C-alpha cells in the first residue's frame, strides 16, 4: 500500500509526477483514498438533442467534424464541433490545446463526457472527457462509473476522471484482501453492521448499486472518525496518566476568605461545577489540560480568579494571559479590585510595561513575591521566569497558537496546570475533533437576572431614527457602542471608514453635551487605555471602535450597540461583539446596520443574530454556514483533515464514533486485548506519518 505510485502499471514517471503535483497522490494508498465525488451511470449514451439547460452531465457518442484554434492570447481556445444523428455539440479547451490537437482526429467518433452548458444558445462542454469510441465500451455492464475530482491540467494531459478510475480499478484487482486489513474491532463491526474494510474500498469506487455505495461510504466515514477519536482520546488519557503535575492538595485561606467575604455574587451552578472539575483535576498529581467553554458573559473570569487562589493556597504562582492589551488591562483592574483586601500580590505585564516596572515584576516572579501575573503574549517570553508557576490560564484561546501554549509548559520543571477559556462557544462536534485531546468543561448557564438582548436589523436609510434611539438610551444614563469593521486586507480603508464614522457620530452627538471615546488598533497603548478608561468610568457616553473591543471588555452600564456594515462580520464575531452589552441589569439592544444590498448569506447571519442570544446555537449555525476550515484557531489543528466525513453533516456518525472509542478505551486502554490488536497495529503504522501528538 505504501508502494510509490509509479510502480502501478500504466503510471510512468511522467504521469506519476503529475499525480503527485496535481493531486498529492504519491502511493497506492493515496490513489485508493482519492475518492470519487459521485457516480454516474455511464452505461447510458445520450443523444445530443436531449441536452437541455437543465442537463448537468451528459455522455454522447459523436463524430468530430471540425477542430480549430480561435482567438488571441488569453482568449485563445480550441473549439471542436461534434455531431451525432440528432444534433451538434461544441467542445472547448482553454488549456492543453496542443496536446488535444495532436490527439484528436477530425472524422473519428468519440465517447464524450462532461458538464454541459449553453453558450449563445448552443450546447457546449468545456474540457470534456474524451476518448475514441469503441462500440462495446458502453452499454451492457451495469455499473456506476465513479467521477473523481481532477484538475484541468490532468484532464487535458489524459488523466481525466475516467482514466483515474481505470488506474484505481487496476490497483484494486492487484491488491489482496490482506493489503486492506480490518482495523475496527470485530464486536464494533458487528454491532454497527459495518461493511468489511477491503470490501468498502472496492465498493466506494465501484459499487454495484447506489445502496452499495452508501454502505461503503458509511463504513469508511465511521472508520475515519473512529480512528481519530481513538487517537485523540489516547493522547488525552495517556497524558492524564503519564504527565506529572503539581498537586493542589487543599483549599486554604486565600480561597475560603475570598469566597466567604469578597465574592460579589452567588456562583451559578455551572461555575460551581467547573470549579469542582478544576479542583479534582489539579489534585490528582497529573497536569490539568482543560478547555473551558462558556458563552459570552457566563462568568469565566471569576472561575479563573478562584482557580488562581486555589493555586496560591498551595504555594503556587499563577498567570492569566489575554489576547489583547486592553483585555489584559481590564482583567488586571477587575482582579485587583476584587482582591484589594486580600494579601495577594498581583501584577500586569504587557508589551508596553515600562522598563523599571518590568524589572521589578521579573524579579518578583522569580522570588515569588508576586503571586499572580496578568498579561499578554509578553508573559511567554523567555526572560519571564517564575519561581513556582502552578497554573496558567489562557483567556479567549483562539488568538493563541499551539506553539505559544507550549511555551507556557516550559516555565516550570513540572508543567503547570493549564486552563484554556474560549471566547465564544465551539460547536460540540468541533470541540470533539479539534480539541478532542483536551478535557473540557461547559458553562451553559448565564448569571441570573440577565435580560435577553433585543437585536434588530436596520438599513442605512433608517440611521436618523437609530440615532434618536441611542440618544434616548443615553438620556436614561446608559452608554453606547458604535462598532466599525476592520478588514485586514484593507486596513487603510477601514481606518478611513472608522474616522468618517467617528465624525458622523460626533455630528449626531456633539460636545459638550456628549463625549466620545475612540479605540482602534493604530493607537499607542496608552491612548487606548485612556479612551477605554474614560468609557469605563462613564466620562464618555459613547465608544466608537473597531473590533479591538471584541473580546472580554466589560462595561455593564453600556446598553446599546450599533454595528456598522454588519454584513462584513462573521457570526461568531457578531455574537462576541454583542456580548459587550447586556452585562448589567438593564435591558440592552443591538442594532445591526447594513446597506440595502446584502448577500443571502449575510442576510442569513443577520436573521440568526436577531433570532437568538444563545452562543451555542449560533456556533452551530456558523459551522454550518462556513464549514470547519474557517473557524478560528482550528485551521492548524490537523484533526479536521477528514477525507470523507464532515463534522457538519455527519454529526451522528461522529457521536457514535466517540462513544465507541471511549467504550473501547475504558475497557482496554493499552489495546492489549486480542480483538483490539488489529487496531493497535493500524495506529502504529499511521503514527509515523502524522504529527498528531503535536496538537496540544
Ligand atoms: P465571560 O465569561 O464573558 O468572560 P465575565 O467573566 O466577564 O464573562 O462575566 C460577565 C459579567 O458577569 C461580569 O460583570 C461578572 O462580574 C458577572 N458575573 C459573573 N458571574 C456572576 C454570577 N454568578 N452572578 C452574577 N454576576 C456574575
Ligand atoms: Mg471573558
Number of strands: 21
User: Rg to the nearest angstrom?
Assistant: 31 Å
Biggest sheet statistics? 7 strands, parallel
User: In percent, how much strand structure appears in the residues?
Assistant: 15-25%
Distinct compounds present:
adenosine-5'-diphosphate, magnesium ion
- Distance N terminus to C terminus? 30 Å
Structure, described:
The protein has 696 residues and is α/β, with parallel strands linked by helices. Among the domains are: 44-140, OB fold (Dihydrolipoamide Acetyltransferase, E2P) (Beta Barrel), CATH 2.40.50.140; 253-443, P-loop containing nucleotide triphosphate hydrolases (Rossmann fold), CATH 3.40.50; 454-612, P-loop containing nucleotide triphosphate hydrolases (Rossmann fold, 3-Layer(aba) Sandwich). It is 40% helix and 17% strand. It has 23 helices and 21 strands. It has a seven-stranded parallel beta sheet with strand order 11-12-10-13-14-9-15, with helices on both faces. The chain is globular, with a radius of gyration of 31 Å. The two termini are 30 Å apart. The model is unreliable at 633-637 and 690-696 (pLDDT under 50). The structure holds adenosine-5'-diphosphate and magnesium ion. Adenosine-5'-diphosphate is lined by residues 265-268, 271, 294, 296-302, 447, 552, 554, 556, 583.
Short summary:
40% of the residues lie in helices and 17% in strands.
Features:
696 residues, alpha/beta, OB fold (Dihydrolipoamide Acetyltransferase, E2P), Rossmann fold, seven-stranded parallel sheet, six-stranded parallel sheet, 23 helices, 21 strands, globular, disordered C terminus, binds adenosine-5'-diphosphate, binds magnesium ion
Amino acid at each position: 500500500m505504501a508502494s510509490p505510485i509509479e510502480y502501478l502499471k500504466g503510471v510512468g514517471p511522467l504521469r506519476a509526477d503529475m499525480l503527485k503535483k496535481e493531486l498529492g497522490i504519491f502511493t497506492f494508498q493515496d490513489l485508493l483514498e482519492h475518492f470519487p465525488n459521485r457516480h454516474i451511470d455511464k452505461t447510458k449514451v445520450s443523444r445530443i438533442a436531449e441536452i437541455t439547460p437543465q442537463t448537468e452531465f451528459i455522455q454522447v457518442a459523436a463524430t468530430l467534424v471540425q477542430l480549430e484554434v480561435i482567438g488571441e492570447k488569453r482568449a485563445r481556445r480550441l473549439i471542436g464541433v461534434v455531431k451525432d444523428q440528432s444534433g451538434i455539440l461544441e467542445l472547448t479547451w482553454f488549456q492543453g490545446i496542443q496536446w488535444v490537437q495532436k490527439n484528436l482526429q477530425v472524422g473519428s467518433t468519440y465517447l464524450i463526457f462532461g458538464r454541459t452548458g449553453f453558450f449563445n444558445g448552443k450546447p457546449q462542454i468545456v474540457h470534456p472527457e474524451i476518448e475514441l469510441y469503441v462500440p462495446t465500451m458502453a452499454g451492457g455492464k451495469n455499473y456506476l462509473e465513479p467521477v473523481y475530482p481532477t484538475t484541468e491540467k490532468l484532464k487535458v494531459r489524459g488523466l481525466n476522471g475516467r482514466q483515474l478510475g481505470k488506474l484505481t480499478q487496476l490497483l484494486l484487482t492487484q491488491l489482496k484482501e490482506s493489503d486492506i486489513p480490518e482495523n475496527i474491532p470485530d464486536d464494533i463491526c458487528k454491532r454497527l453492521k459495518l461493511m468489511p474494510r477491503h470490501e468498502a474500498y472496492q465498493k466506494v469506487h465501484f459499487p454495484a448499486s447506489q445502496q452499495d455505495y452508501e454502505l461503503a461510504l458509511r463504513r469508511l466515514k465511521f472508520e475515519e472518525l473512529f480512528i481519530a477519536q481513538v487517537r485523540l482520546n489516547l493522547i488525552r488519557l495517556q497524558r492524564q496518566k503519564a504527565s506529572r503535575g503539581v498537586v493542589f492538595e487543599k483549599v486554604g485561606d486565600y480561597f475560603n476568605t475570598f469566597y466567604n467575604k469578597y465574592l460579589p455574587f452567588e456562583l451559578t451552578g455551572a461555575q460551581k461545577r467547573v470549579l469542582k472539575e478544576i479542583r479534582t483535576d489539579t489534585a490528582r498529581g497529573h497536569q490539568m489540560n482543560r478547555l473551558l467553554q462558556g458563552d459570552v458573559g457566563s462568568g469565566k473570569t471569576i472561575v479563573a480568579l478562584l482557580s488562581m487562589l486555589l493555586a496560591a493556597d498551595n504555594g503556587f504562582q499563577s498567570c492569566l494571559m489575554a489576547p489583547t492589551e486592553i483585555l489584559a488591562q481590564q482583567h488586571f483592574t477587575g482582579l485587583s479590585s476584587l482582591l484589594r483586601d486580600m494579601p495577594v500580590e498581583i501584577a500586569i505585564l504587557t508589551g508596553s510595561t515600562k522598563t523599571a516596572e518590568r524589572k521589578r515584576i521579573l524579579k518578583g516572579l522569580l522570588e515569588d513575591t508576586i503571586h499572580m501575573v496578568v498579561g499578554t503574549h509578553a508573559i511567554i517570553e523567555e526572560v519571564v521566569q517564575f519561581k513556582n508557576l502552578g497554573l496558567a490560564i489562557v483567556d479567549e484561546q483562539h488568538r493563541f497558537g499551539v506553539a505559544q501554549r507550549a511555551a507556557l509548559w516550559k516555565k516550570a520543571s513540572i508543567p503547570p496546570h493549564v486552563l484554556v477559556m474560549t471566547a465564544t462557544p465551539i460547536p460540540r462536534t468541533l470541540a470533539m475533533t479539534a480539541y478532542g485531546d483536551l478535557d473540557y468543561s461547559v458553562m451553559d448557564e448565564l448569571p441570573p437576572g440577565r435580560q435577553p438582548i433585543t437585536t434588530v436589523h436596520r438599513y442605512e436609510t433608517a440611521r436618523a431614527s437609530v440615532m434618536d434611539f441611542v440618544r434616548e438610551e443615553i438620556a436614561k444614563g446608559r452608554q453606547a457602542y458604535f462598532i466599525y469593521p476592520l478588514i485586514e486586507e484593507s486596513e487603510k480603508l477601514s481606518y478611513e471608514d472608522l474616522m468618517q464614522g467617528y465624525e458622523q457620530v460626533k455630528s449626531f452627538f456633539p460636545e459638550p453635551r456628549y463625549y466620545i471615546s475612540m479605540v482602534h488598533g493604530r493607537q499607542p497603548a496608552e491612548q487606548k487605555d485612556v479612551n477605554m478608561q474614560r468609557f469605563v468610568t462613564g466620562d464618555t457616553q459613547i465608544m466608537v471602535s473597531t473590533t479591538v473591543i471584541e473580546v472580554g471588555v466589560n462595561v455593564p452600564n453600556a446598553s446599546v450597540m450599533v454595528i456598522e456594515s454588519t454584513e462584513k462580520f462573521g457570526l461568531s464575531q457578531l455574537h462576541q461583539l454583542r456580548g459587550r452589552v447586556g452585562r448589567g441589569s438593564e435591558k440592552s439592544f443591538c442594532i445591526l446596520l447594513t446597506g440595502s444590498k446584502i448577500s443571502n448569506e449575510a442576510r442569513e447571519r443577520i436573521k440568526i443574530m436577531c433570532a437568538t442570544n444563545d452562543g451555542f446555537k449560533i456556533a452551530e449555525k456558523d459551522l454550518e454556514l462556513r464549514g470547519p476550515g474557517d473557524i478560528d484557531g482550528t485551521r492548524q489543528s490537523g484533526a479536521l483533515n477528514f477525507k470523507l466525513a464532515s463534522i457538519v453533516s455527519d454529526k451522528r456518525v461522529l457521536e457514535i464514533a466517540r462513544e465507541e472509542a471511549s467504550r473501547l478505551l475504558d475497557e482496554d486502554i493499552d489495546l492489549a486485548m486480542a480483538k483490539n490488536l488489529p487496531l493497535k497495529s493500524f495506529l502504529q503504522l499511521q503514527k509515523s506519518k502524522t504529527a498528531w501528538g503535536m496538537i496540544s
